[in-house]
Structure formats: C-alpha cells, structure tokens
Design brief:
mainly alpha
C-alpha cells in the first residue's frame, strides 16, 4: 500500500511541476480543433513560401525572422494562455511557416530526398512528443509548454517534406484528398482505441501537418488553382478564421486550465474538528 501511494505521489508531482512559472494548460482536441489545426497548417505553408519568396528574404533570413516572431508569440501564449488563445493560434501559424523554410532547406540546401527527410523528421517528431506531459492521467492532449512547441515545430518540418512527397507522387489535388482521408482515419482511430495516448495525439499532428502542405500549395501553385501567394494567403486565412469560429462555438470548457501550484491541497475538516459556533453552548 505504501509503495502504491509513493508511485501515485511521484506521478502527481511529475504532472504538476510548473515550467519556469508559466501556466500549465491543454486544449481539448475535438474534431473542430483538428480542422482548425489543418487550416492553420495550410496558412503556415503559404506564409512560409511568401515570407521567403514573396518578400525575397531567402530561406535563411526568412527562417530567422519567423523564429523570432514565433518565440515572442509562444512567450505571450505561455503567459496569457488562460485569457486568450490568440497567441496560441498565431504561434501555430508562424511556427509552421518557419518549419516550411526548414523543410525546403533540407531538400534544396542539404540535398536530402523527400523520403529520407520525411522518415527522419517523422521519427524526430514522435520522439519529441514522447517527452511531452499531459496535465493529468486522463487528459487527451499534452500540456502546452516548451516541449510541446518543440515537437510541434518538428511536426511542421515533417509536414512540409511529407506533403511535398505525396504531391510529387500523386499530384497536388489527389495528395490533398489522400492525406485528408488519412487525417480523418487517424483522428477516428485514436478516439476509438486510445483517446488519451500521447503517441496518438502526435500521429494526428503529423497527419494534419502533412495534409496542410498540399492544401496551401493547391491555392497558390500553378498545379492547383494558381492564385499566387498573396491571394492564397487571404484564402487560407479566411478558411482558418472560419475553422476557429466553428472551434470556438463547439469547444468545451477547459478542464486543465488552472494555474499549477505546489501548495498541498486543502483537506475537508474532520469529524473531530470543533463544532460550529451555533452548536456550542
């Protein structure tokens, strides 16, 4: 019995340990949440290309500036995440844009093949996701901390190269359809088999990051609608706003959004406590 209590206390301490004083919280990964993540991935794909090509910054300078913006947004989210999710969603988009630059750099600068880059970054994402921690044993998503953002960035790099691999192999629109179906299958499978498994969460991230690449490119590329980067930015941004509206209308109240505290929990008064004043003589 004592050993069981010790293990339970250790697990509780691992979950409740605060990171640098930031607020520990998690978002409910509903289908509307994943649709918004997919739309954010499409917007981030177009934004990354626009930042590097449209603004003519090049991959290196584009990535450097996007990293700085991402860091500021992540800091804002970790400080004010309980009050607003605006910093979170902006960070998701900008971080995905930076990951697009890195994915393109792996292919065009380092000379890796799309298949090898997809394998390496996919394994790296799952390995990083392994170290993310849920707010509680029954939580369906990990706590949003620096480990979360690191794994999300790697997932964005995977999405860039894996999405391009699918588009080059199948064609732009067929790749979008195939990866979209794969995303739905992974979401449904996790909800039915292991709704609290963190590996399932990060598998969905891999799927929606990959599906977002041909989705964004389909708006901008001549192999798709050929709208160009500025108009594609507006279109994917509008889709994200619509997805966030649906998400906001359907999301459930956060169950793990309280600030983490190291103080011991309050215990109810025992039966031996002194009686209330009205009971005293």
């Amino acid at each position: 019995m004592n050993s069981e209590r010790t293990l339970a206390a250790a697990a509780s301490a691992r979950v409740a340990t605060p990171d640098l004083g930031f607020e520990a919280r998690a978002l409910d990964p509903s289908p509307a949440f994943w649709f918004a993540m997919f739309a954010a991935s499409a917007l981030g794909t177009v934004l990354g290309d626009f930042w590097a090509e449209g603004l003519r910054l090049g991959l290196v300078l584009s990535f450097g500036s996007l990293v700085v913006i991402s860091a500021l947004l992540i800091f804002g989210d970790m400080r004010m995440g309980r009050k607003t999710e605006a910093f979170y969603w902006l960070a998701i988009v900008v971080l995905r844009a930076g990951a697009t630059n890195v994915g393109d750099g792996l292919i065009h600068i380092l000379g890796l093949t799309l298949a090898i880059a997809s394998l390496v970054t996919g394994v790296a994402t799952l390995a990083a996701g392994y170290f993310t921690i849920p707010p509680s044993a029954a939580a369906p998503s990990p706590r949003i901390d620096l480990r979360y953002w690191g794994a999300m960035f790697l997932g964005g790099v995977f999405g860039t190269v894996a999405g391009d691999l699918a588009a080059h192999s199948l064609g732009m629109f067929p790749a979008l359809l195939a990866l979209g179906v794969a995303l739905i299958v992974v979401i449904v499978t996790r909800s039915l088999i292991a709704p609290t498994a963190m590996v399932g969460y990060w598998c969905i991230v891999l799927a929606e990051r990959a599906a977002g690449t041909p989705a964004g490119d389909w708006f901008a590329s001549r192999r798709g609608l050929g709208l160009g980067l500025p108009i594609a930015l507006a279109c994917t941004g509008a889709v994200l706003l619509m997805a966030l509206w649906v998400y906001g209308r359907t999301k459930r109240p956060a169950r793990e959004g309280r600030r983490v505290s190291n103080s011991p929990p309050k215990t109810p008064p025992s039966a031996s406590a002194s009686p209330p004043p009205c009971w005293r003589r």
